[in-house]
Amino acid sequence: EIKACLFDLDGVLVDTAKYHYIAWKELAESLGFPFTERDNERLKGVSRVASLNILLEIGGLTLPEEEKTQLADRKNNRYVEYIAKMDSSEILPGALEFLKECREQGIKVALGSASKNAMTILNNTGLTPYFDAIIDGTHTSAAKPDPEVFLLGAQALEVLPEHCVVFEDAEAGIEAATRAGMFSVGIGSPETLNAANIVVPSLQQLSVSSLRESFAT
Ligand code: B16
Ligand code: MG
User: What is the pTM of this model?
Assistant: First the structure.
């Protein structure tokens, strides 16, 4: 039986990946190397510090820790400028409808995001009232694929992992869900998300009743 749904933020409810991309690209170019959309794929669902390490690896740079902190802050300041302008028009297709359906059907809802900026995004898009619990990068100590973020979500909702469904667009997020002992729905392409229990292109293609059927079989 499904008692709770746990949602990733970037790539599932909103497309903030495009803003992360512009901000990382600007940083890479200021450091003297190019950064492509394909490179950006590697940063999805990955924490800020880990993202910077991947970016520096792409550029072939090794830097001292304090310089890295400055660069991560510089990127984040740019990113925050972009998300400050977000509104409800940036909610991904089907997401709001699905959140409402969960509420109507008595399913509890939590956020499970790696982002330290999740509250700003939820508030600016008007999504905050749809959540019974919010777990983001300010609450976790281990990044996905560690299951911590989803286990904290289940705990906050007082629901056992076996009654939880996780919605994720990143491979590391699906692995985190599996390690948490939860059913997983991949949002995106079946090639990259083959470890998920089911995969849909977006939340628009899914209803709570069809999810219940997949969960039961
Ligand atoms: P921040 P999610 C993740 O969000 C993003 O996918 C990832 O690209 C980003 O680096 C990470 O949040 C940290 O974000 O710099 O705002 O703390 O997919 O877990 O909702
Ligand atoms: Mg994501």
Answer: 0.94
The CA–CA distances, whole Å, from 76 to 27, 30, 69, 81, 189 equal 10, 15, 11, 9, 28
Q: Tokens 């992992």 correspond to what residue?
A: 161
**73 carries an active-site annotation:** no
Distance (Å, rounded) from C-alpha 115 to C-alpha 121?
10
How much distance in Å is there from the Cα of 113 to the middle of ligand 1? 7
Calpha distance 88→122 (Å, rounded): 9
pLDDT in tens, 23-35: 999 999 999 999 9
Element housing 106 (H / E): none
212 C-alpha to ligand 1 centroid (Å): 29
CA distance linking residue 150 with residue 1, whole number of Å: 18
121 within 8 A of 83, measured Cβ to Cβ: yes
Residue 8 appears among annotated catalytic residues? yes
ipTM, two decimals, is: 0.93
Tally the C-alpha atoms within 13 A of residue 89's C-alpha that lie toward its C-beta: 2
Q: Which ligand is located closest to the Cα atom of residue 52?
A: 1
